[in-house]
Specification:
This protein is mostly helical. Helix content is 77%, strand content 0%. It has one domain: MetI-like fold (Orthogonal Bundle), CATH 1.10.3720. The longest helix is centred in the N-terminal third of the chain and has 34 residues.
Length: 233
């Protein structure tokens, strides 16, 4: 117990002192996960809204594939991206393997089905007559879709939270495609794993605290965006 307390104290000291290694890892993690979340949110919300509002032949197959993607093991995604970018893959000429770009691709693929799936479910839960009502008032199809998304905003925001949670805490895929290279592709999760194996529990614990802090602040922000639920708690 004393060893854990000592590691906690050292972790707080590292964060207060703005340890360069810690700051570098945090910065890269925010950059990679932030860009991946942006890509997956734009694509996922669009696809989710489209699937939730339209009925067509083959839709059931697309929904089944989407649900399968929501449960896809991240390490499988990492393996797929690795094979695509490796020397024997079709995109080896890009030279993106073991770079942040490969990590962004992997995290975007992981987060996309989560955002799209939850968005689709939220849109389908909205009163189906709402679309006809707003269009009868002169709204365009695009405006009607935006109205429905606003009505389903709680679920849409939850989909973004789920996407962020799925990538910020992921280790297998980013380890495969990023290589955990110090100063280049080392992010929070891979650094925690590495530092724990090396016995650097102070830095590992500091990184773990940062991960928990990111999770808390993200959920707090999303609650505020949903309309002040925090003030009612």
């Amino acid at each position: 117990m004393s060893g854990l307390w000592q590691a906690l104290v050292q972790a707080v000291h590292l964060m207060v002192a703005r340890d360069p290694a810690l700051i570098g890892i945090i910065s890269l993690s925010l950059k990679v996960s932030g860009i991946a979340l942006l890509f997956s949110a734009v694509a996922g919300i669009s696809v989710g809204a489209w699937l939730g509002l339209h009925h067509f032949r083959g839709r059931g197959l697309l929904v089944a594939l989407l649900y399968t993607g929501m449960g896809l093991p991240p390490v499988v995604v990492g393996l797929f991206v690795y094979l695509m970018l490796s020397r024997s893959g079709p995109f080896e000429g890009l030279g993106w393997l073991f770079t942040p770009k490969a990590m962004i691709i992997a995290q975007t693929i992981i987060a996309f089905p989560l955002v799209a799936g939850f968005t689709m479910t939220s849109v389908r839960s909205v009163d189906p007559d709402l679309r006809q009502q707003v269009q009868s008032l002169g709204a365009t199809a695009h405006q009607a879709t935006l109205t429905i998304l606003m009505e389903a905003r709680t679920g849409v925001v939850a989909s973004v939270i789920a996407g962020f949670g799925g990538i910020i805490s992921e280790v297998g895929a980013v380890m495969l495609v990023g290589g955990n290279i110090e100063g280049r592709t080392r992010v929070l999760t891979t650094a925690v794993l590495l530092e724990t194996r090396k016995g650097n529990f102070d830095l590992a614990l500091a990184l773990g605290i940062v991960l928990l802090t990111f999770s808390f602040l993200t959920n707090l922000l999303m609650l505020l965006l949903q309309g002040g639920e925090v003030r009612r708690v």
